[in-house]
Amino acid sequence: MNPLQVSAYTVVSAAARGVAESSTALRDGRGGLRACDFEDASLPTWIGRVDGIEQSPLPERLAEYECRNNRLAQLVLLQDGFSETVAAARARYGADRIGVFIGTSTSGIRQTEIAYRERNREHNELPAHFRFRYTQNIFSVGDFTRRFLELTGPAMVVSTACSSSAKVFAAAWRHIQAGLCDAAIVGGVDSLCLTTLYGFNSLQLVSSSPCRPWDAQRDGINIGEAGGFALLEPPQPGATAVQLAGYGESSDAYHMSTPHPEGTGAILAMHHALDAAQLAPQAIDYINLHGTATASNDAAEDRAVTELFGTQTPCSSTKGWTGHTLGAAGILESVFCFIALEYGVLPATLNLQHKDPALHANVLDAPMEHDVQRVMTNSFGFGGTNCSLIFARPG
Amino acid sequence: MSTMYVEQIGVTGPGLAGWEASAPVLRGDAPYAHQALGKLSAELLPANERRRTTNTIRMALCAAQDAIASSNTPAEELATVFASSDGDLEIVDRICTALDTVERPVSPFHFHNSVHNAPAGYWAIATQSRRPSTSLSVYDATFAAGLLEAMTMVRAEQCPVLLVAYDFPPPPPLHTARLIGEPFAVALLLHHEATPASTTRLDIAMADDQGNEDRMQDTTLENLRTVNPAARALPLIMAIAREEAATVRLPYLPGSLLHIECTPCR
User: Fold this and answer.
1) Which of A144, A172, A297, B261 could join B203 via S-S bond, C-beta 3.0 to 4.6 A?
2) What is the ipTM of this complex?
């Protein structure tokens, strides 16, 4: 497929604010997980909470979008000069020629949780301050991003659980290919809420300690929040920016909340991404795993990766830095791939102490200084949704 | 690059029980009679999976199975786009109600059904399709956005795509926060090139325009169109039912419309 250039990108997670801090945190093995201190949630688990959201209200002109998710989106949009770069692109292409494709799983549902807590129980009425359209609605964060960046091109929010903000790269590529826009903002934002904390807890999928991907003792995820954005446009002559070289999507057709044990859907997604990029598996220098640290997820992904790549390709899961950021995982880990490509550092798998002897992928337990040309990132989610992306340095 | 071909349509809505019964109504050959949705049954799902589904999921799957009922295109070969403004608000209500108690007992079934791509997941299980699938929302512009996403998929992947758009009314207390006054789901089976089974060619363009989207002449159908984001599709499926050349204007993002040229294939 025709590659797209990643002209600018930015990210915020529990581990770091912005790209420079993120690359340092990845290099130094400094993660952002902590014992759960979100609101009044009393669960014995660890989370990846982003500091400072509570102190970052939205500007007056966007006040109706007030919710944790859109505050986090704004916090991200203000890092790394991203909004300024988009403004320059807007001047170049025109506001109506830049599309906006954002992923989220739970949007502003935290606001609905609050509205239910504050509802009039006698008449079963939600409080007047509750703005459903601008918070709970799945499109809210896409609408907010579009307004914040003053863009008027095509837009949508993809919500496919934990593959959401990986699939936005595919949607953006297709929209540009079809001529509906010339450039695109892709991104993802998911924020902490009681729904996901208590929901994953009900499925007995959360760990009571910092998550340990690929470890023999791994026992579940830590839920995190994060956001990230990237500007995609056709490659500019002579530019050195990393490129989206391929994407692959598939469905498991197996179970709503458990991956296919043989990783069949995951293999298909990775295979399609390699086909799209016209690359053999050996051409991939590093894989950022979905690596959630549940027993079944890591086992299925290990089978899929080793089936396609063998046991030599360096891999790691970065969930130990950030927790599982659900609908933001795709963009977050894409940015970690950009950092690997541009800074030449492959992250370790934080918290991995004793690799599960049943797993065979070459999972890094220490950071590796290594010049890489082509990397892959995997994102898989509930409903059996899979997406793999390949990013490469040009030339 | 913005052309695609409709093979089949599926529809589930009040007084619109399947495409075969609804096409004469939309053509104007039979009167429209509003009638509450009957029992929704997603027959294509295995019984154990069906038990775990919700009204919203069953309604989406009803329209989807209606669209493939008389098609020769194998269901497992279809990529899918599931477009819904708000997904499953009955589930949101149950989860938020549970979270407002001391123990916060969120049901695991409710939680895994709460993902926006739940109907897509059940569809894949039912049809054993491993093809790509997107689930999206653009609030009131969701149908138009789903049609655009389906068009770009049809063109880029050169594969048949099933677009399913659906929204289901929320229970109290959410019903005052989000107006979805009627349940409605529609499905379009789309191809990148004409086949012997093609009924209508669609050529789609985005246009700056305001206020003059197409409306339904029948006042009850016009009400349905305005109270459910998926029902914004009604002028398009009416044009397809009439098998006449027409330009349909559907609402997209604020300040923009989709212009859809419909050309009968036979």
Assistant:
1) B261
2) 0.98
In tens, the pLDDT along B196-225 reads 999 999 999 999 876 689 999 999 999 999
Whether A272 is catalytic is no
Predicted pLDDT of residue B52: 86
Our count of domains for chain A comes to 1
CB contact under 8 A, A253 and B128: yes
CB atoms within 10 A of CB A277: 24
Pairwise CB contact (< 8 Å): A253 & B130? yes
Task: Tell me if residue A324 is catalytic.
Answer: yes
Residue B151 carries which side chain, given as an amino acid letter?
Answer: M
What's the gap in Å between the CA of A255 and the closest CA on chain B?
A: 7
Q: How confident is the model at residue B44 (pLDDT cuts 50, 70, 90)?
A: confident
* Other residues' Cβ atoms within 10 Å of the Cβ of residue B101: 8
Domain ranges, residue A273: 4-392
We report the CATH number of the domain holding residue A321 as: 3.40.47.10
Cα separation, A160 vs A171, in Å, equals: 13
Residue A292, C-beta contacts closer than 8 angstroms, at least 6 positions apart: A162, A211, A213, A221, A298, A317, A319, A324
Is B99 in Cβ contact with A116 (below 8 Å)?
yes
pLDDT at residue B168, rounded to an integer = 98
Neighbouring C-beta atoms of residue B47, cutoff 10 Å: 7
| Cα A301 from Cα A304, distance rounded (Å) | 5
Domain annotation for chain B: domains and CATH numbers: 6-198+216-244 (3.40.47.10)
Question: What is the per-residue pLDDT across B18-27, written as a single tens digit (0 to 9) for each?
Answer: 999 999 999 9
Q: Which two tokens stand for residue A213?
A: 């991907």
* C-alpha distance from A363 to closest chain B C-alpha (Å): 28
**For residue A160, what is the nearest residue in chain B, using CA coordinates?**
B117
Digit-coded pLDDT (tens) for A221-257? 999 999 999 999 999 999 999 999 999 999 999 999 9
pLDDT number for residue B47: 85
Task: Answer yes or no: A290 catalytic.
Answer: yes
Neighbours of A38 (CB within 10 A): 19
Predicted confidence at residue B179, as pLDDT, reads: 96
> What sections of chain B are H helices per DSSP?
19-27, 47-50, 55-68, 89-99, 108-113, 118-127, 142-157, 219-227, 234-242
**Interchain contact B187–A (C-beta under 8 A):** no
pLDDT(B1) > 60: no
Three-state DSSP class for A18?
Answer: helix
- Using the beta-carbon criterion (under 8 Å), do B152 and A138 form an inter-chain contact? no
Distance CA A392, CA A180 (A): 25
B108 close contact with A: CB closer than 8 A: yes
Q: What's the whole-number mean pLDDT along residues A200-204?
A: 96
User: Does the beta carbon of A255 lie under 8 angstroms from any beta carbon of chain B?
Assistant: yes
Contacts of B52 in chain A (CB under 8 A): 256
Give me the residue from B112, B176, B253 closest to A382, CB to CB.
B112
Q: Give yes or no for A182 touching B (CB within 8 A).
A: no
Closest to B134 (Cβ–Cβ): which among A125, A142, A160?
A: A160
According to the model, what pLDDT value does residue B51 have? 84
Q: In what order do the strands lie in the sheet containing A46-48?
A: A34-35, A46-48, A223-224
CB B226 within 8 A of CB B180: no
Residue A355 in this model has a pLDDT that exceeds 80: yes
